[in-house]
Each structure stands twice: as structure tokens, then as C-alpha cells.
User: What shape does this take?
Amino acid sequence: MVSLALLATCGTPSATPTDLPTTGADSIPAPTASPSLDAGAAQVAAIDGMVLVYIPMGEFLMGSTDSDSNAYAGESPQQRIYLDAFWIDQTEVTNTMYARCVQAGACQPSAQTKSYTREAYYGTPQYANYPAIFVTWFDAQAYCQWAGGQLPTEAQWEKAARGTDGWVYPWGMAEPDRNLLNFNLQVGDTTEVGRYPGGASPYGVLDMAGNAWEWVADWYDPNYYVRSPQRNPTGPDHGLGRVMKGGSWNVAGRNVRAAVRGRRTPDYRYDNVGFRCAR
Assistant: This one.
């Protein structure tokens, strides 16, 4: 197996300052009543209006087997991991949601106002429900703390993406196609969140393959799975950048598997990098 050292990128747009986005920041939904805590139960977060999905406690299969020909170094050994219950954002954090954090003074404005093909992306009503991109790991963590949570651990993210049966992709074992996710330059840029309900995970979590890579809390260590704790792992104390999961709009199908472990330095930002939070 080879190492997935770099995330696929497409072009290098120049960074420009951006004004404070204002799209959708006029109201904040109130929280819903507490749901029954069944797998996939949902509620709306009070601060940012995100739909949260409940992931119950229990074990799941994390990583890839040595026999998986698509696997990269650092994905094995596959192991059974126990996690306490948690909530995770149903979609990637959107431009509208990120704008609320900026207006609250808890987040930095985006360093880039455009996306790969769009000259106006942040602060534009047309793209209000598209993923916030060009965010560093620090930006993502600041947002999650403002919203009442934190970045998911790699294990939390992967369980929410693939469930407990060792599925390769959020939707199961079938190969990716354009009806399930945004990948492989088929759209050529980000799409609005939640556009591919057929690609939902077993818990109903959306966009966990393609669209934008997602920061998680952990440092990356290619050998971490060899010594990872079997209960609630939080990653090593240091590593070769922070882990990113899920692939993006401009990567091939091999790189949208739930077990793929991309990584970048935490100050990295680009047009195919976003995030979601856990609580």
C-alpha cells in the first residue's frame, strides 16, 4: 500500500481579503424538543441552526483490511473500536452558518471570497447553503467551540460515515457514482449540502463522501492504528498534520472511502476543504 501524502487539488486561486459575510445571519432557529435517543435521531442546534444526528454508543469497524487493494498505508490494521454516544452535524457547515460565527466575533472571515469556479461565493445568497471552504483547522475548531461542540475525532467521524458493519462508503459497498456524491470533477466545484440523499450514511448523515474534505480533531500518524486504544481514541499527541476525511469534489472514487486518511498542516486552507462538528 502507498501513502496518501497529499490531497488532490485543482488550480491555485490566489488569496484575497474578504468582507464580513452577511448571508442568512438574520435569525437563529430555536432548538427543537429533545428527541428519543434512537440511532439517527435528530434535533436542531440553537446556536447555528445545524441539524444534529445522534450516533449511539457501541462498537464499529474502523480502518481497512490489509487485503483491500484500494487502501493506503496508515489505514490498517482494521480494528473494532468502541465509542460513547455523540451527536454530529448532519451536513458540512455552510457559508450561512459560518457567517453567524464571524458576526458573533468568534470566527475569522474567510481568506477567500470565491470558490474554484465562482468569483463570488461567500456572502452570496446563491451559495448560502454551500459548504464553508478555505478554512484552516484552527478556523474549524473555533467555529465548533462557538457552536457548543468540537471537531469530531477521526473515530467519531468514521463511525458516523460508515456505521457498524464495515461499509466502505456511507451508502454501503457499491462503487461511487454521480447520483450518490459530488466527486471526480463531475460537477467541477462544491455543491449545496444535502444534495445527495442517496449517499447518506446508515445514520442519515449527509455529504460524508465528496464535496469537501473535512477536518477532524486528530493529529495524523501513519502508525497510530497499531497502538490505538480500543475505546474512544482521540489520536496521537503530535503528528504529520491534522487528519482530513471524506474526499472532495475533485478526487477519484478511491479517495472518498470512509477509511481514507488525508492530512495537511493545520494552517492549510483550500477550495476543497471544509468541516462539520460533533457535540
